[in-house]
Amino acid sequence: DSCTTSLESISLPVFWCLCSLLCVSQIKMSQVKQVGLLAAGCQPWNKDVCAASEDRFAYCATLAIYVYQLDHRYNEFKLRAIMSEHKKTITAISWCPHNPEVFASASADNLLIIWNVAEQKIVARLDNTKDSQVGVLRIWNVSRSTPLDNFKLKKTGFHALHVLNSPPAKKCNSISPTKSHYTSSTSEAVPPPTLSQNQAFSLPPGHAVCCFMDGGVGLYDMGAKKWDFLRDLGHVETIFDCKFKPDDPNLLATASFDGTIKVWDINTLTAVYTSPGNEGVVYSLSWAPGDLNCIAGATSRNGAFIWDVKKGKMITRFNEHGNHGIFCIAWSHKDSKRIATCSGDGFCIIRTIDGRVLHKYKHPAAVFGCDWSQNNKDMIATGCEDKNVRVYYLATSSDQPLKVFTGHLAKVFHVRWSPLREGILCSGSDDGTVRIWDYTQDACINVLSGHTAPVRGLMWNTEVPYLLTSGSWDYTIKVWDTRDGTCLDTCYDHGADVYGLTCHPSRPFTMASCSRDSTVRLWSLTPLIAPLLVNVLADHSWDDIIGNTDRAMVPGATPLLCGKVSRDIKQELDKLSSEVRVKKLRWFSECFSPPGGSHNLWDLVSVINGQDDSLLPQSYGKGIMHMKHLVRFKTSEAQELTIVKMSKFGGGIGAPSKEERLRDAAEIHLRLGQIQRYCELMVELGEWDKALSVAPGVSIKYWKKLMQRRADQLMQEENHDVIPYCIATGDVRKLVNFFTARGQLNEALLVAQGACEGNIHVPQTACNLCCSRLLQCVCKELAEWYFQDGRAVLAACCHLAVDNTELAMASLIRGNELELAVCVGLVLGESANQATHYVLELLARKYMTTPTWDLAADLLQMIPDNEVLLAKLCAFYPGSSSEIDQIHEKCGLPSLEECQALAESAVSEGDIFNAVKYYLMSPEPEAALLVGIAHVKEQLSDSDWTVDSVHPILDLLGYIRTDRLILAKFTEARSELLILSGYIGALLAIRRQYSSIVPALYEYTSQLMKRREVSVPLQIEQLSVELEAWMACTHSRGPDEAPYTPPSEAQKAEHAHLLDRLQEEPLRGLEGPDYVTGSNLPSHSDVQVSCFTGLRIQGPVFFLEDGKSAISLNDALMWAKVNPFSPLGTGVRLNPF
């Protein structure tokens, strides 16, 4: 009598799964960084396309396998890898039942691949292998004729199912602030309690991975009857096109081979609308201008259509091309009544939205692309199979083109007019090039060569006139400077052909891309023009920020903003009489920042600075709110859910039923402590037991009335729900722990705030101070959850919600959102001053390079008491004597010769710090090495030295000019400086809790001591003792190392001695590892191996000065903050900022 799970038609043999990452060589650190990823949905073509083992599960899109793993700390599943090696559709995957690290995948080309999941590599290739009611999951006992249980999971049919014999082990993470920071997340999980025979008989077998016909995928807990994870919709095939909604930069539409158009909210990365489908292939889409809420789509066999997104239905169809495929559709944004289509029948047809044909432009072959001019409403360009680009003028009756541009060596696909330069357009071709054409000169003015396959996606930047981005069948995205044809950056993250590229004018440096790998990815282009934002925050003149296209197009000129958004910001600022700087920082910061919390962050900054609540935008209530608003906004939301009538339209993503709305409203009222409203709604839903269980929390009288109303109702089976009891009894801490242990941090936050405001009647023994501490604790935990998910900006929002500006700034710094942190810090003012000054220092380090030295100086001059900081900049400046004197003068510092004299004077007075400082700025900076290193060695020989007694001198010495430091005659001094910097860096890393780089810094120091003849007061054996003591006392061992054993007494004493030397970190909140945006996103370019760990790097990579050695950007940032010199021991300074 064992429990089994059955599902109609699930009987195919299951193979095993995973996908290898595209190996593309990179020789430099990418500037354009990936900031978002919409994972593909699960393919509906085959049955056995999902599998699970221990704390991992996987599912297949058409050509790639997505692997999720349980994050034990937060008890949630996260995307860990995307693997692709199959060239044809994957038909089945299966995990090896005997080895959780091994699984296999099979595909339509008769290929079977065996994978190692942990190492993300192929173990073996096996070639020439041969060949109910919808949405209900039933649990059967074979001795009974009826199911033990039925779960109605979705309205769409199952496609595949995999049952886990036992649920994934869950780990509860206490929110107690005393919990050790170093507890390893890889230690053994607590086994689940043993079930009695009767319980084991009656309970379902645990969890089921379910895949559905609409591309949905989820992990269902059959015992708790709830989803542990659900991704409701996703494209299951190639995405051919993507476009932002003209009046809303947060909505992105995608068109796919799977026959649907989907609209996504890019802040939450979830689908909010989907078209009815069954359209064959949808090749292209175009939003209606403005706020019309319609999308025009082009299909392979069903002509073109207009879809009303809000009503969820097709309202118009165009069939002028017959059965020929329509490859491109373009709705004119200058004249909203005109729509153009181009097709395989050789025609480009212009019609009105009611179907009246205005022009039919005949081409000698298939037409693949068309684009309306952004300057002339009557001009349109086309790309044709005959290799030519044509320009037509609609204001004449002629059906002949005004211009024909020849030069491509294969068919032309997309064409795009420049939004900023009149008469300039580009075209992408199957010859692998992008050509830039000047309509006024009848000429090709540039050829962009670099792609190794046909070019598809094309996108001009709407603010910087020379920036052009292209996507290709070679799987890459390239960003070009069209002034000289230079490729500024190449992105390798997609795992297949890149088809669509788009950005929104109001967020011009956020780009979306779509691909045959079925994903949409979001990118930030801001690093390419980073000096522009620094010009804004350093309060430079408008001439350094905004310009005309002629100035911006001068080869080599610094980037300037030339588009509508920047002009609009300037016009609005010119109207203001107060708060001009605050608004300037906010508006430009939002323009430059990617989605994911920037607007939310600025709303909270405004609240903290005392802005009137009536000025808050409508979207504020949907994000992370300040705690003083949380209860009010959530109460309002509950009331809306109670009274709002269900919409009548269909076709979109399923609108919730009235029952679901009432239930949502009730849950909100309950968490806010509004018990009577909760009871009444539960009664309306027929759930009397829940209403009665909490009614005494209102009054005994009210409870008796409910009992009388219940008397004529049948008693239902009791549901042991701890939540209502906790609310009624006021046991807030237990409830917060209950939610936190399940990873439901937002719920815990609501309860804690409800208690703080007195809505939950807590016992007399629990004071307001305790509730307040609890609230701070939950906010901190929620912030850490966002941070570990690669969303530093939202983590900062959580801290600002409880007025914690220090931790908010720390989150931005640790996420390397430096420019944003400076903008926010400047607006917050005094409460954030210390952190703002630190960020300005880091930013200045970023710009200590040609040609931005002046920017670095400007940033440092924004810091009070900046003499030492400016001295460091001048010491590191590599120019000629006259150039060095010029920068000394700009920084208000003495000349080279004067510095020499001041240094000698300081030496005679025994002032070591000033001696080192002035020697570094003198004609003989190497003299600083001798004085500084001798002093540090003397300090280290003393038994009671501390890090703070030696670090200031070492930090100064770190700014010695590289060209002097690497001279052969200073080999010994250089070696000693690198060793001392490495050792003190290791101690600073321990203080900052940079656990991942502490062993690397100790190893680096030891290796330098072994290989070089030096005389330093350090012993290699002592370094090993310190490292072992630190690892033993902080549980800092990798998952593959020996099991944890408690530290010895000697190790405890050594660790305590180490902590005495460290003292406290002066900047609060900076403890803990750096984690930049995008670090959690798997990429097909994750092929680099870290020279620290020997493991593959996930997320952004930083290449060291040899162009080959790589470490993660996170490790590079942490290393540079504690030790300025490269891990390769060359004496070159690290600049990963």
TrEMBL record:
Pfam families, per database record: TPR_GEMI5 (PF23774), WD40 (PF00400)
Protein name, please?
Gem-associated protein 5 TPR domain-containing protein
Species this protein is from:
Oncorhynchus tshawytscha (Chinook salmon)
Which stretches are WD repeats? Answer: 83-125, 232-274, 405-447, 448-490
**CDD domains assigned to the protein according to its UniProt record, in alphabetical order:** WD40 (cd00200)
| Sorted UniProt keywords | Repeat, Signal, WD repeat
User: What are the residue boundaries of the Gem-associated protein 5 TPR domain, all occurrences included?
Assistant: 673-845
Q: Which domain of life is it from?
A: Eukaryota
Give the signal sequence positions: 1-26
